[in-house]
Amino acid sequence: MxxxxxxxxxIVSADGMLADTSHVMPExxxxxxxxxxxxxxxxxxxxxxxxRHSEEGxxxxxxxxxxxxxxxxxxxxHDPSNPKATLWNPAGASFEAACDHAGIHSGTIAIIGGPxxxxxxxDRYDTFWLSxxxxxxxxxxxxxxxxxxxxxxxQILAQHGLKPGExxxxxxxxxxxxxxxxxxxxxxxxxxxxxxxxxxxxRLDGLGHSAAPRDHE
Length: 217
Ligand SMILES: NC(=O)c1ccc[n+]([C@@H]2O[C@H](COP(=O)([O-])OP(=O)(O)OC[C@H]3O[C@@H](n4cnc5c(N)ncnc54)[C@H](OP(=O)(O)O)[C@@H]3O)[C@@H](O)[C@H]2O)c1
What we know:
- By secondary structure, the chain is α/β, with parallel strands linked by helices.
- The chain has helices spanning about 30-45, 95-100, 115-120, 155-160, 185-190, 195-205, and strands spanning about 5-15, 15-20, 45-50, 65-70, 75-80, 80-90, 105-110, 125-135, 140-145, 160-165, 170, 175-185.
- The chain has a single domain (about 5-205), classed as Dihydrofolate Reductase, subunit A (3-Layer(aba) Sandwich).
- The chain is built from six helices and twelve strands.
- NADP nicotinamide-adenine-dinucleotide phosphate binds near residues 11, 51, 70 and 72.
């Protein structure tokens, strides 16, 4: 039985952007405290999932197993440039098939962007770690979710059944915080245990989630 814990990690500007108008994460959105938080989180994850332009680029990156989304393959394939990477096209294979290809059948999976990828898992996150930089604005930039800026990132997380926990300060001077948005117990949270609604009745005996945060580049 696959037992995945799916956590998301992003840092956004006050207007909900993860990158600027040229689709690049600007230096103004990089803070040491957030970087340490994000780095520790990726060090404790079994698998990292991201789009082709969102690899974290950290010293430990070559040692981490990852799934890279691309339309350049039909379903799943080995990445010829990285033995620890699986290439995945969701149009041609399921997420479970991609995890199988990566050799991962349980543990924490870190979803680290871009917007399309963050959206894809909105109904599967156990915890979404939302770092916010209130003094940074990136008008016309790239939103964290496709529904931003019509809605705020917090509104979208709430719409998908996630509730905010206690915020942590990552950078006092710049007011940067991280807030865990956790999924309340329910059918969806059991789905990540590979249990369908049909099984719920027989297994409602204390399946649950534990928080394991840390950080962001
Ligand atoms: N602030 C933060 O915390 C944060 C977090 C993440 C990213 N970022 C930044 O945001 C920018 C994101 O770049 P981006 O918009 O280009 O996003 P991206 O998701 O990293 O890359 C887009 C590419 O990923 C593949 N892809 C994405 N969704 C797919 C899907 N549903 N099916 C198949 N392939 C898919 C496609 O690759 P192919 O072209 O190969 O088909 C697509 O061209 C980067 O500059 C990154 O540094 C910032």
